[in-house]
């Protein structure tokens, strides 16, 4: 009876070990895939800011020069 319990416990430990190794392998593959997709996404972006981004930057600026460029619009959200 004790020998059977020891063998079953050993079998259970072996099964958990095998499952853990499989999960580790899959998680490493998924991590590499996600890392690659993030790098590819940032690599594919242009280096020069888009014109719309520059306009948004000018709109959120509170200095007088930027408001003169945009025709008198001045942001009062942050004051």
Structure description:
By secondary structure, this protein is an all-alpha fold. It folds into two domains: 45 residues; 33 residues, no CATH class. The chain contains three helices and no strands. The longest helix is centred in the N-terminal third of the chain and has 42 residues. The protein starts with a helix and ends in a 10-residue tail after the last helix. The mean pLDDT is 77.
Separation of termini? 80 Å
Tell me the number of strands: 0
- Subunit organisation of the chains: single chain
Helix content: over 70%
Name the average pLDDT: 77
Characteristics:
mainly alpha; about 70% helix; about 80 residues; about 0% strand; Ion transport domain-containing protein; 2 domains
In short:
The chain is mainly α.
Topology:
Elements: H1 2-43, H2 51-59, H3 64-69
């Amino acid at each position: 009876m004790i020998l059977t319990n020891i063998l079953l416990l050993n079998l259970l430990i072996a099964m958990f070990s095998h499952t853990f190794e499989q999960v580790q392998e899959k998680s490493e593959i998924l991590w590499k895939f996600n890392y690659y997709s993030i790098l590819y996404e940032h690599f594919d972006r242009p280096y020069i800011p888009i014109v719309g981004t520059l306009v948004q930057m000018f709109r959120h600026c509170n200095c007088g020069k930027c408001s003169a460029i945009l025709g008198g619009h001045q942001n009062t959200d942050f004051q």
